[in-house]
Structures are given as C-alpha cells and as structure tokens.
Amino acid sequence: MTETPNPLMHRDVDEASRRALAQRGLTYRTVPAAEPAFDGWIQAVARGFQDGERSAEQIAGARGRNSDRRLTGVFDESGPMPEVAVGTVASWASELTVPGGTIPAGAISAVTVAQTHRRRGIARALLEGEVRTVAAAGLPVAMLTVTESTLYGRYGFASAASAAILDIDTRRVRWSGPTPEGRLDFVERTVARDVVATLHERTRRRTPGDIALPPGHGDRFTGTDPDAKDGGDIRCVQYRDAAGEVRGILTYTLAPHERDIVKGTAKVTILIAETDDAYAALWRFLLELDLVAHVHAELCSVDEPVLWMIGDRRAASVTVFDHQYLRIVDVPAALRARTYGAAGRVVLRVSDPLEIAAGDYLLTVDDHGAATVSAATDADDAGGTAGAETLELSVVELAAVYLGGVSPETLGRAGRVRGTDLAAASRMFASTVVPRVGLWY
C-alpha cells in the first residue's frame, strides 16, 4: 500500500476558529495520539457515534490507528469532565481517484459535537477550520463520508459519489452469471487482511471516488484489531485464478435466524475483485451459501453487475444513499487532475461561502480529454474566452459534478446551476465509470 505523507500532521489549529471558540469559553487545540489527552478525545468520538465507553485496551488500539492523523478537539474546561472533548475532528492526507487519474486530498473523519454543547458554533468552527487547514496545506480537495447529509453543504461540501445497499433473497436467485475457472478457499483473517490491502491498492484507481486505504482499515474488515469485538465471527474467502494468482477477497459474517436455521443472513464486510472472474466467483459463493436466505451488502456501486447475474432482479432490494462528499479548495488543480468526456471550452463562475475557491476560471478540454485551466480574467485580457460557454455555480455544485456522479444539466433542471449550454457541459464532465467509494472513513 502506498504511504502518503501527511502535510496536515503538524499544523496548528485554524486561528479564526480558535478565536471564535475562545469567545464562547471553549478551548480548541490539536490532540496528538501519543499524549494522555487522546484518551478524552477518543471517548468523545465514541460517545458522538453513540458507542459505549472505551476500555483501556480499546484506547490503546485506537491510539495506534490514529498515530498518523491530525486530531483536533474542542474542550470545555469549566465543565465537570474537562478532559473529555466536546467536539472532535480528524484529518490526514490521502489520494482520491478521479476520472482518468488521481489527486491528493485531505480526508476528514470523526466529526462529533457533544449533545450538551450544540448550537455553540462548534461544528462550524471545526469544519471551517479543517477546510482552511486543508487549503493551507496545499491539498486541492477535502473529502469525507457522512452520517448526516444536511450538515455539510453550508461548508462547501457536496455529495459526489453515491452508494447502494443490496438485500438479496437467495431463495429467488437462479445464477445466470459466468462460472469461472480458478478456486475459492477459506483463509485466516490475518492473511485476508494483507490481501485486502494489496487488492485495494491494485484496484482503487479504477473507480472515481475511491481513496487510498486508511490506516487500520484492513484490520477493520477482517476483525484483526487487537481490540476488535467479535472479530472471530468474520469469515474470509479468497479467489485464485487458473494461474494461481489471488484476484479476489471476500469477508463476511453470518447472522442466524432467531427461529429457522435455514433462513440466516450473510453480511458482507468487504468484497474486492481484481477481475471479472473473481467478482463472479465470490458473488456466486455468497448467494449459494448453505443455511442462508438473505445476503446483505453495503457500500456497493449503484450499477453492480451482480444484479444481472441472479436471474430474478426482484430478488434484490436496492437502496441508494449519498455517501462520499467532496469540497474543492483549489479549482485549477482539481480541474486539471481529471480527464473529460468531450472537448470544449467553458468559463466556470464559482461562488464559495468561505471565499476559498471563488473566482472565474476558463476550462479548456482538448480532443484527448486533457484540460488546461486559467483565471478567466487573464484569459479574457488575451482574448481567450471569446466563444466559450459559461457555467454559473457554487463550489457545492462544482464538487457534485466533479466525479461525474451528476450532470450540470440535471442540476440545471433542479435550479442549482445556470449556463449557456448545459448539455455541452454535461458531456464534458461525464465519466464512463460510476463514482463510488466502498468504505466508511
């Protein structure tokens, strides 16, 4: 797995956010994982996500997983538990797959505010501070996966990649997909952990929206964390092709039916397939498990091929939800990083609630899909914007169309963008691959 240096790691807290919180009697500071203050920070994160109090063993495990992240906390030193944060956020440098390439990105996670301290500006200070920190570190994009989708638009984030939950009634399935050569084998969880990391690294650049595997996620999928609860319940199966190469990995758990043993549920924790054969073999294995009547898989693509492999499409219930959110902080760098579906020239008039990415930009795409970007005012002075289409949108809508998950034309019909030729802009921003990220972070 590629190790990405973290330019966020040693940055102090954002000064504007620090002053805003100080006026409310709150302390805003970084919390290095190696320091004792981490204990109160991780307890706050657990509480914020409605989990239980962390044990000493769990805190030690979390300390290791967070050692390379920039952790920030808000503390109320006038309260009865001044050592426990009332607001938290974590960030690290990662890499985001975009159409035709990748781009450095600041990943944001662990955003919590204590219920006792709502409406005191904590969430605003944390998120605005983190976005400004990402920008100051020279990372063109900020990204996060969300539990509350209504929170982030005011800070310039937009849903850029959706995910699907599949619930499949295996009693209605009649396998109509291919039957690959190769073999399936159960493997130990520690072996599966390493295979997850290897295959994720080999496959993540195929799908816009995917990211570098965060530290510790291989252990999360396979239950191999030292502090993992019920890790032994996870079963792991790998697929080897006819040449003996490992091309796929599946991890899942089994939940028996409370009354009928033949009506259990298999819950997928991760399925990574490097080849079409691996994909078909692992899905067929899942759908033909003994004593299983339902397969539940989350964070799937909205266009999963398995829906065309089961004979009866109505055997599958599909729920689509917004998952990967992006926030563009450097428009020229972001636009240059991806390739485009059609040639064209468009002036993007971008507004930004935080005034980080606001401006007018000329995007020029050649016949090969490669882009050049310049400030529209500079290009106009040289006569370069003559005849270019225009697209007026906020940084929120720019993030929404960036990976190709929604078109400018659709957002135009929703009243979210305006332009002289939204159909042409839609052809430019189109992606041949549906964006998706197959994990929470």
Order of helices and strands: HEHHEEEHEEEHHEEEHEEHEEEHEHHEH
Strand content: 25-35%
Radius of gyration: 23 Å
Largest beta sheet: what is the strand line-up? Answer: 1-2-3-4-5-12-6-11-10-9-8-7
Arithmetic mean pLDDT: 95
Shape: globular
Helix percentage: 25-40%
Question: Topology, please?
Answer:
Elements: H1 15-22, E1 27-30, H2 38-48, H3 56-65, E2 70-75, E3 87-98, E4 101-113, H4 122-136, E5 141-145, E6 158-169, E7 183-186, H5 189-203, H6 217-222, E8 235-240, E9 246-255, E10 264-273, H7 276-287, E11 292-300, E12 316-328, H8 331-337, E13 344-351, E14 359-365, E15 371-375, H9 376-381, E16 389-394, H10 395-402, H11 408-413, E17 418-419, H12 422-429
Helix pairs in contact: 1-4
